[in-house]
Amino acid sequence: MKMNKKKDNSNLMMTLLKGRTLFVLIILFIFFSIKADSFCTVNSLLLVCKHVAQYGILGIGMTYVIITGGIDLSVGSVVGLVGMIAGGLIQEGLTLKFAGVTLYFSVPAITVICIIIGIIIGIVNGALIAKCKLAPFIVTLGTMYIGRGLANIRSGGNTFSSIKGQEALGNVGIMQFDSRVFAVGGFPGIPIAAILFLILAVIAAFVLKKTPFGWHILAIGGNEKAARLSGIKVEKNIILVYAISGACSALIGLVTMAQIAASHPNTGDTWEMNAIAAVVLGGTSMAGGVGTIGGTVIGAFVIGIINDGMTMCGVSEFWQKVIKGLVIILAVLIDQFQRNLQAKMALQARNENK
Q1: Global pTM?
Q2: What pLDDT was estimated at residue 132?
Q3: What are the Cα distances from residue 202, in Å, to 141, 210, 324?
Q4: Is 96 helix (H, G, I), strand (E, B) or coil?
């Protein structure tokens, strides 16, 4: 009888732990709705959704990376670098000194160029980690500094402020990344970034749970040696997840540039922490092998609501950083506790079956 009661308590605790992020999200929403009068207005909630999309799209790529047991600290710098490259191409074009001409690209072409740049950065990260066996933390920390430095070099630390383009040059349209849809009557419409986030989240969740690639990266994170012995191409898959992370970062670089109507080299500073926090809060284990896109989506909402809610309540930016740091530490501690509880329950189940 006592054993069954203990087992029931463990099952209840596990259920609460699995749903912890959703519970926290509900509590935060209620809290800020009471504390900040403007929090529940349509415009404020749409602003939250816009910021959630930024952290969430970065978090999608980061989820894949962390599931393999890695980390990508370069995502924020890729956001800034891509924004500077795109802004420079729109405002100044590409000057070919040897030919004495300046080329101007259409927005679709700039978008493709920037996504490719993000993918290349991701491939470099993945290759150094998978092929050269370097630590993910060190590699992506290095590329973070390189990306941030190149972003400042691109403009000498200045901002590209004329990014709307010119009809005569055929490079208008970048601001469409910040347009809205479903704007009916007095409703201001849903940001394009939120729609992109929803679409990418559905695709990423399907890939993770229903395709061999998703199963492979889960296997790699769970036990890389066993995955290799079972025939999974570990190096190829690791390079691919970092390429996906780079592509997600590049996309957010373009979206953010459109949202602020300018390109600044420090855009995306510390955003890697927001992405990591969203992923860890969503239940993806830093040890690898466990994670869901749905959890990351909820985690992104938690981070977005914390950021915007504290701003609306007048909490200083410095304290916001302290609170987010504590949230990350707490999330990792809870993840560790959950894994220990799961191991304990598995051991008890084996003992009962003997």
Answers
A1: 0.90
A2: 95
A3: 30, 12, 27
A4: strand
